[in-house]
Write a structure and sequence with these properties.
Elements: H1 3-8, E1 18-22, H2 26-38, E2 42-46, H3 49-59, E3 63-67, H4 75-83, E4 90-95, H5 99-107, E5 112-116, H6 120-135, H7 140-143, E6 145-148, E7 151-154, E8 159-162, E9 165-167, H8 171-182, E10 188-189, H9 190-196, H10 205-219, E11 229-232, E12 236-239, E13 246-247
Protein name: DNA-binding response regulator, OmpR family, contains REC and winged-helix (WHTH) domain
Keywords: DNA-binding, Phosphoprotein, Transcription, Transcription regulation, Two-component regulatory system
GO biological process, one term: regulation of DNA-templated transcription
Length: about 250
């Protein structure tokens, strides 16, 4: 993230974004923190799961880079503990061939992932992309509230409620929901979701699939028979507005 980017971002004005790197390999940690520091971030390193969880609670990072294989507590356990009370963006690091870990990370609330070995520059680009999207919040007079049936989506406060009950929703789920509402009635392809929500021109389709499934579990009365967020087989997904009681600003 350049200084110009930082200056345009209201949330980071006057300080560098704080990135918590939870990685037990000292060589990988040194390379990652070095690249992040040179890119305008303030990285803090934790070498095991318990230390990462404690630092996350103490420093309130703007983003967490979290390895799956960690001593003490593994990355999946750390992520699940974080998600109890914290929706900070999380990028998981998994080893080649660890598809199960990758899917478990996404299921547990990870926003993105990278497979080792990876390019540190690619990681920096992913960090930039996630922070840019999660911190760019329009003024309240423009942002408003989206309403779909008994769902209320406050884009300013980044809060979603269903029938008056607030839902716990990580950032990527929130962005996916907002994007689908704003494109209601239109079939959205998986590659378009990867591009528009995750800012990737390519990627694993399971990322989208897992996030859609998690989102349905929260917004649908019966996730096994979705009435709002529907699958269009072989193409992608479509969000259908209820016949009455729905509104977009």
């Amino acid at each position: 993230m350049t200084q110009a980017d930082l200056g345009a971002d209201h949330r980071f004005r006057g300080r560098e974004p704080r990135i918590l790197v939870v990685e037990d390999d000292p060589t990988v940690a040194q390379v990652v923190t070095g690249y992040l520091r040179r890119s305008g971030y303030t990285p803090v390193h934790a070498s095991d799961g318990p230390m990462g969880l404690e630092l996350a609670r103490q420093m309130s990072p703007d983003l967490v880079v979290l390895d799956v294989m960690l001593p003490g507590l593994d990355g999946i356990q750390v992520l699940r503990e974080l998600r109890v009370s914290n929706q900070v963006p999380v990028i998981m690091l998994t080893s080649l061939g660890e598809e199960e870990h990758r899917l478990r990370g996404l299921e547990s609330g990870a926003d993105d992932y990278l497979t080792k070995p990876f390019s540190p520059r690619e990681l920096v680009l992913r960090v930039q992309s996630v922070l840019r999207r999660t911190s760019a919040m329009p003024p309240a007079r423009v942002d408003g509230v989206l309403r779909v049936g008994d769902l209320l989506v406050d884009r300013t406060a980044r809060v979603v409620s269903k029938a008056g009950r607030e839902l716990t929703m990580p950032i990527k789920e929130f962005e996916l929901l907002v994007f689908m509402i704003r494109n209601a009635g239109r079939v959205v392809r998986r590659d378009e979701l990867m591009r528009e929500v995750w800012a990737h021109n390519f990627g694993d389709a399971s990322t989208v699939t897992v996030h859609v499934r998690r989102l349905r579990e929260k917004i649908e009365d019966d996730p096994s028979r979705p009435a709002l967020l529907k699958t269009v087989w072989g193409v992608g997904y479509r969000l259908d507005l209820p016949a009455a009681g729905a509104g977009l600003p």
